[in-house]
Amino acid sequence: MLGSVAVSATLATSLLCRVLAGPIRPRVDTVNTAFVDLGYEIHEGYANDTGGYYLFSNVAYAVQPVGDLRFKQTRLPTDTRGSPPLRNSTGSETVQCVQAFPQWVVDTRAQHYGVSPQVAESMLRSQAGQTESCLVLDVYAPAFAVHKNKNNKNEQDAVPVVVWIHGGGFTYGSKTSTGNPAGLISRAGQDGIVFVAINYRLGLYGWLGSGDGTTVPNLGLYDQLLALDWVQKYIGHFGGDPAQVTVLGESAGASSLLHHITARGGEGPAPPFQRAVLQSPAFQFNLDPAVGYREALAAAANVTGRPVGSAADLLRLSGADLAQVNQKAVVTARYGEFNFGPVVDGTYVPRLPQVLLGRGQFHRTVALMTGHNTAEGVPFVPPTVATPADAAAAVHASLPEASDATVAFLVGTLYPAAAYATPLDQVAQMETDAALGACTTRFAALASANATYNYLFAVPPAWHGEDTAYTFFNGDTSPVDGVAVAAGLAHALQDAIVAFAVAADPGKGPAAGGPGTVGFPLYGPEAQVWRLGSEGAAVVRDDMDNPRCPWWQQAMADGLV
User: Fold this and answer.
1) Does the model's pTM come out above 0.85?
2) Sorted alphabetically, which Gene3D superfamilies does this protein's record hold (predicted)?
3) Domains and CATH numbers, the chain
4) CB atoms within 10 A of CB 460
5) CB count in 10 Å sphere of residue 129
C-alpha cells in the first residue's frame, strides 16, 4: 500500500551495521557511579568519562507484558516492601522487543551490503537481547543534574528532558538502534538535558487487532504513553524536569507522537509532554488490521502444525513459537509495508490523525517542530517500476480501496508523468507526500495556525530516515547512502532540537546562526521552512504548500484511499 509505515533505509542499515560491528556504547568508568532509588528498584548509573553524564540502562518502566499480560495493557511498577532490588547495568546488556523484518527490507539490505539475502536475514533476525520482557528505557543524565538533585532536591535546578521514540515500521528497532545521544547531550552544554530512550512492543506483540476482544489494538501506543507517564513520575530522580518534556520521534516514532497529540480527538487528559519534534511522521494510514491477524493465524498453524483459529490460541504459544509466528506474519508484507501498526480503534484513535488535524480535534497544549526529507519515498517503491503501467500498478497495490478513477486521477492529473524524470520518481513523490509524512507536517502547521517550526532535510539523496544520522551525530562523518555526514549541518540540526527542548525556539541554537547557516523561523503565513542542504542552510517556502496535500487530507476524510 502507498500508505506504508515508513521504516528508513538508514535505520535498516543501522541495524545491520550494529549486528556486524556490535553495539555502540559509551566508555564508562566503573568506579564513578551514581545510585537512584525508584522505590521499586535501585539503579546504578555508570559515568561516561568524556561526556559528563551517567547512563542508567534497562530501567523497567512497566510490569513486563508476559503471562496474562501478553496482548494486554500493562501498568507502572509497584513499590516494593522493604529494600528495593539493586539493578546495575553498564549498558553492555542489550534488551529489545522481539524483532521482525519484511522480506523486502532483508533484500534491500543484502543488496546494499553486497551479501546474500540469507546472510542479511541471519544477521538481522538473530540480534541479541530479544525478549517479551522488553519494556525498559535508558536514561542519560548529566552528572551535575544527578548530583544536584541528590544534594539539593530543588525542582528549580531540574533540566529539560528529551524522550526518544524510535522508528522501524512498528516491527523492528529499539531504544539504541538509531545511535548514541552523546552528541545531543554535548550540544546542550551547560544548560544540560536528560535524554530518555524507550522500547515499546512491536509487530503482533504491540499491534495485533483480533477484533474479538482477546487483544487490545494499538498496544504499542499505550506502552509509549506509559513510558511518558513514568517520566512524569520518576524523571526528577535523575535531575530532569517533568514540566519540560520534549518527545522526539522519527518515522514510526514520529507518527506515534502524532497519534498521542490527536488522541481521543483532543478530548480528555492532555499528553504528558509539552513539546514534540516529529521527524517524517510516517505510517500506513490505510492499514487493514485483518491482514496482520490473518497472517498471524496462518503462521501459527504453520509453526505448530495444528489449526489455530483465534488470538486465544496465540496467547498459549511458547515464547519461541510466537517469535517465529511474528516473523512469518511480517515477512510477507508487500514492498514498502509491514502488516502491523496503528489503526483507528474508535477510542484512543477515533479517526486518522491527519483527519483530526484538519478538524482541529487535537491537543493544542503541545508545541510542535516538524521535519521532512525531499525524497522520502524512494526506498519504498519497488525498483522494478519503470513504465507508466508499472506506476499505475504500484499505486493500485498501495491503495487497494481506491477506485480505478481515483488511481487514474493520481497518475494522470495530481502527479502527471511529465512532471517527473521517471515513473519511479512519480510514485516516490506520492509515497513522500501521503505515506511518509511530508504532507502531514503541513497539516500540523495549518492546524496550529502556522505556529510551528518546520525543517526540510535536502542533503542528497535525502531519503527517508537520513536525517537521523544528523540528529544522532557524534563525530562520525561516515557516508550515509553514499554522502558523508556534514558535521556543521549536523551540529546546526542538533542545536535546533536542543534549543526547542530548552527554550521552545529552535532558532536560539548556537549553531543556527553560525557559518553556512541561517536562523530557524516560525512557519508563519508565508509557509517558511528551514532547509538543510549540501550548500548549507536557507529559509525557503515549504514544498508541501501545494495542491497535492489538501487532496490527500480530504481523500483520507472521505475514505477514497
Assistant:
1) yes
2) alpha/beta hydrolase
3) 9-379+434-541 (3.40.50.1820)
4) 13
5) 15
**Catalytic annotation on 376?**
yes
Strands 479-480, 483-484: pairing is antiparallel
Cell numbers found for residue 344: 483507528
Q: Is-contact 464 436, C-beta < 8 A?
A: yes
| Cα(38)–Cα(138) distance, integer angstroms | 14
Active-site residue, selected from the candidate residues 121, 132, 337, 376: 376
Residue 555 has pLDDT above 60, yes or no: yes
Distance, in Å, from the CA atom of 324 to the CA atom of 313, rounded to the nearest integer, reads: 15
In angstroms, the Cα distances linking 168 to 120, 250, 251 are: 17, 9, 7
At residue 413, what is the residue type? T
The region that residue 468 occupies, defined by phi over 0 for left and psi between -120 and 50 for alpha, beta otherwise, is: alpha
Quickly state the pLDDT bin for 509 (edges 50, 70, 90): low
Give CA–CA dist 189/187, Å, rounded: 5
Residue range 124-170, pLDDT digits in tens: 888 999 999 999 999 999 999 998 766 555 566 899 999 999 999 99
Query: CA separation (Å) from 157 to 189, 239, 303, 502?
Result: 15, 8, 55, 13
Going by DSSP bridges, is the β-strand pair 536-541/528-533 parallel, antiparallel, or unpaired?
antiparallel
Q: How many helices (H) and strands (E) does the chain have?
A: 19, 15
The string of pLDDT tens digits covering residues 99-120 is 999 999 999 989 878 899 999 9
Count of positions (residues) in the chain: 561
The grid cell for 554 is: 480530504
- DSSP code of residue 375: B
Please give the Cα distance from 489 to 536 (Å, whole number). 7
| 198 beta partners | 137, 165
Catalytic position from the list 14, 251, 255, 398: 251
